[in-house]
Amino acid sequence: MQKIARRGIHHMQTLNAAKIPADLIERGQNRVIDASLTLIRERAKLKGELVRALGGAKASSSLLGVPLGHNSSFLQGPAFAPPRIREAIWCGSTNATTEGGKELNDPRVLTDVGDVPVQEIRDCGVDDDRLMKIISDSVKLVMEEEPLRPLVLGGDHSISYPVVRAVSEKLGGPIDILHLDAHPDIYHEFEGNKYSHASSFARIMEGGYARRLLQVGIRSINKEGREQGKKFGVEQYEMRTFSRDRDYLENLKLGEGVKGVYISIDVDCLDPAFAPGVSHIEPGGLSFRDVLNILHNLQADIVAADVVEFNPQRDTVDGMTAMVAAKLVRELTAKMSK
């Protein structure tokens, strides 16, 4: 995994050692980036045209994969999650109907614009500053095709920063965020990495992209996590008080006075009994039905969402966590589409 994570860095070092002119390297990078964005743009256009031709949809969920894992502080496996989640969504062991009765086979409910080719971009020596912009630009391309709304498949949690940034910038103002996670992911930086998956919500709050940030399922938080939460006015709901907070959290109303609501689900918000296939196993989490109750009862206009931190390499129980992640995506799809 370390070899995979560092491949892009090593490739750039090889180019430099070979004394390839910097302008030639940059031109090559730009061609790869342009090709990547063109692919997302054309897929989004095709899916948007289809949904508009069918008519009747005010909002339609559209999957966008961001297979990024190198900003993980422990294991890199989430980079391999998007195709496994897709496979599980359409697994023949279940049907294509959500619990509320929406049909995923209907493009007005769900479409798919493919993946941002993260590793190919990194292989060209593109650094994380530019990579984050490419992710943001990809999200904006999806949002340009009304009524598509991006439902992003991670990847580690560092992807939430460029996705939220894109949504806020595209809509022209801050949004409310419901963040389900075992961890607050709000370190100023972690191990010297400002884009660490443990720092994504610090970047979001610093940028002014969120008015309210509600973090639910927290059970691994230290002094800095609490101090950062207070600094940014984050509403942190820890599992140790969940029984007290349950009624409020299962009847949330968000988004009044802002541009919409974003939902970020880290699969490790769930107790590992429900989802063992994660990098950071933290006992004492939410049940799957707890999460669905929060989602199903939420009153909000959901403009975008992500499901992150599923690690297929830790999914040892016959793909159980893949099916859990897929179910989260399916129910998010139903909640977002209208």
From TrEMBL:
PROSITE patterns assigned to the protein according to its UniProt record, in alphabetical order: ARGINASE_1 (PS01053), ARGINASE_2 (PS51409)
EC annotation from Swiss-Prot or TrEMBL: 3.5.3.1
Positions with a binding annotation for Mn(2+): 157, 181, 183, 185, 266, 268
Entry-linked CDD domains: Agmatinase-like_2
Entry annotated with the keyword Metal-binding: yes
One Pfam family, short name: Arginase
The protein's required cofactors: Mn(2+)
Alphabetical GO biological process terms: putrescine biosynthetic process from arginine, via agmatine
GO molecular function: agmatinase activity; arginase activity; metal ion binding
Pathway as given in its UniProt record: Nitrogen metabolism; urea cycle; L-ornithine and urea from L-arginine: step 1/1
Domain of life assignment: Eukaryota
Enzyme class: hydrolase
Cofactor binding comment, as recorded: Binds 2 manganese ions per subunit.
Catalytic activity: L-arginine + H2O = urea + L-ornithine
Protein keywords: Arginine metabolism, Hydrolase, Manganese, Metal-binding
Protein family (similarity comment): Belongs to the arginase family. Agmatinase subfamily.
Protein name listed in UniProt: arginase
Source organism of the structure: Spinacia oleracea (Spinach)
Taxonomic path: Eukaryota, Viridiplantae, Streptophyta, Embryophyta, Tracheophyta
